[in-house]
Amino acid sequence: MEIELKLLLAPNDLRSLPANPQVRALTRVVHRSALLHSVYFDTPDGDLRTRGVALRLRRDRKSTRLNSSHVKRSRMPSS
User: Fold this and answer.
1) What is the reported pTM?
2) Beta strand ranges found along the chain (DSSP E)
3) For residue range 28-65, what is the model confidence (pLDDT) as tens digits?
4) How big is the CA angle at 42 (ends 58 and 47), to the nearest 5 degrees?
5) Residue 74 has pLDDT above 90, yes or no
6) H or E element: which one contains 48?
7) Residue 66's CB: how many other CB atoms inside 10 A?
8) Closest Cα to residue 77, out of 5, 4, 3, 7?
9) CA pair distance 51, 31, nearest whole angstrom
């Protein structure tokens, strides 16, 4: 199972994140890390990004997957 957590934080909030009780509770869970290689695709004119679509090719030691997802444009990084 994969859980992906994305956070949009101001620098001061990032520094205080480890002290957050909910984040501290996560440290009690057994977790593992994995090396992932991700490549994101778009058209030359940025049509996917304009429509709030992310197209990603992700590779790990065991598999390669192509994923697409709808992303709120306000949360997409600027190019």
Assistant:
1) 0.52
2) 37-41, 53-59, 64-70
3) 666 677 888 999 999 999 999 899 898 999 999 899 99
4) 145
5) no
6) helix 47-50
7) 10
8) 7
9) 35
